[in-house]
Amino acid sequence: MSNRTRVHTRRRAVRVRARERTLVTQSPGIMKAPRTRRHWRPLPTAAIVCLLTFTGFGATVTTAGTAQASAVSIKALEIAASKQGSPYRWGATGPRLFDCSGLTLYSFKQVGRNLPRTASQQYGYTRHISREARAAGDLVFFASKQGIYHVGMYAGKGMIWHAPKTGTVVRLERIWTDNVLYGRVD
């Protein structure tokens, strides 16, 4: 291999790695970090000892911020559930009529968190999480090739509280597709 070919190959490899890094950080549906060793650091010994100590006694390790966010999300979920049977109306934000994003906006507003108005804006506002990390009170966003078109609140066991469409009411329903994304309100 000539010197010129080696330089060209190295430059191409650098461009490909840079593009992969950009795709991973900019794509909203991708939850993985790039596969480079510098992103994976071993836990300090003290952290491992703490984790072993807590798990040995059956305790749950959470930070104050996580516990508080969970309590707020659960309270917002309870408010959404209390609106069961409220009619759907496009553009409505409560307290008696709702559309999908209006229900989530109203629920979180009642517990002191302000969300943007539309489902796609709410997706941009939330911290994106994986399906495995979802918990009751997280937002479930329904996506198509055109973008986010619907939002509901995760109730657990594959169910959401949402305001589906004109002619329906706020209700608990099973998630009907795999084309969903999850977001957490902090």
Classify the secondary structure makeup into a structural class: alpha+beta
How many beta-strand segments?
Answer: 6
Q: Determine the strand fraction and express it as a percent band.
A: 15-25%
Major pleated sheet: 6 strands, antiparallel
Annotation field: number of helices: 5
- State the order of secondary-structure elements, H for helix, E for strand: HHHHHEEEEEE
Q: What's the helical proportion of residues?
A: 25-40%
Q: What's the gyration radius in Å?
A: 21 Å
Q: Name the overall outline.
A: globular
User: Within the largest sheet, what's the order of strands?
Assistant: 1-6-2-3-4-5
Unreliable residue runs? 19-68
Mean pLDDT: 77
Looking at how many chains there are and whether they match, the oligomeric state comes to single chain
Q: In whole angstroms, how far apart are the ends?
A: 54 Å
Can you tell me about this structure?
- The chain is α+β, with helices and mostly antiparallel strands and 186 residues long.
- The chain is built from 5 helices and 6 strands.
- The protein has a 6-stranded antiparallel sheet.
- Strand 3 (147-156) and strand 4 (159-162) form a beta hairpin.
- The longest helix is centred in the N-terminal third of the chain and has 24 residues, at 3-26.
- The chain is globular and about 35 Å long.
- Residues 19-68 have low confidence and may be disordered.
